[in-house]
Design goal:
Order of helices and strands: EEHHHHHHH
Helix content: over 70%
Distance between the termini: 80 Å
Number of strands: 2
Shape: rod-shaped
Structural class: mainly alpha
Radius of gyration: 36 Å
Length: 188
């Protein structure tokens, strides 16, 4: 079957680029306006119309249009625009679900972090004073053992002993939080 253009010329099957270009130029603005009324997006409406014409050109050898070319183009633009809107709706729904999941994960992580902080503070309060001071200087103020010894007026071996004792006690008291603690306080 031969595809005819509006009034007088045969189109697509004859491979006449001039005829195709004429069809494009004579229908583009109206199709663009039609798509724009559905999408409210000028660039996407233009993209839709160009896609319809591209598909028409690419399938010209095997295509049989049983209505007028204009009716075919309008129906194609309508369908492409609807497909785009459906795709955007799916994207929006996915983004909303992803945001909900992200917020839930953030809340769970914040709760776990708060609980870890409470347990760590509780465990630190149970350490002997010197031991706690050495641990805090090492882990929170990031001082080297020698610097801690100089600051507190104790030997390097004493600092090492206090740290060993603190780490051993904290490991026992924070066993439930050990995986998370290993991230927060390495070398525990």
């Amino acid at each position: 079957m031969e595809v005819t253009l509006a009034k007088r010329e045969t189109l697509v099957r004859t491979d006449h680029e001039v005829v195709f270009e004429e069809a494009f130029k004579s229908n583009f603005k109206a199709l663009h306006a039609y798509s724009y009324t559905m999408l409210q997006d000028d660039a996407m409406a233009e993209e839709i119309v160009q896609t319809v014409f591209l598909k028409l050109w690419e399938s010209r050898e095997r295509m049989a249009i049983h209505t007028s070319l204009r009716a075919y183009l309008y129906k194609s633009v309508y369908n492409e625009s609807l497909n785009y809107l459906k795709h955007k709706k799916v994207q929006r729904k996915y983004m909303e679900e992803a945001m909900v999941a992200y917020k839930q994960q953030q809340a769970q992580e914040a709760d776990a972090d708060n609980e870890l902080q409470k347990q760590l503070q509780r465990a630190l309060r149970q350490l002997p004073e010197k031991c706690r001071t050495v641990f805090q200087l090492s882990r929170f103020e990031e001082l080297k053992y020698q610097e801690i010894g100089d600051k507190l007026g104790i030997s390097l071996k004493t600092v090492e002993a206090h740290m060993g004792k603190a780490l051993k006690l904290l490991r026992v008291q924070l066993a439930d939080f050990l995986p998370l603690l290993l991230i927060v306080l390495p070398n525990l």
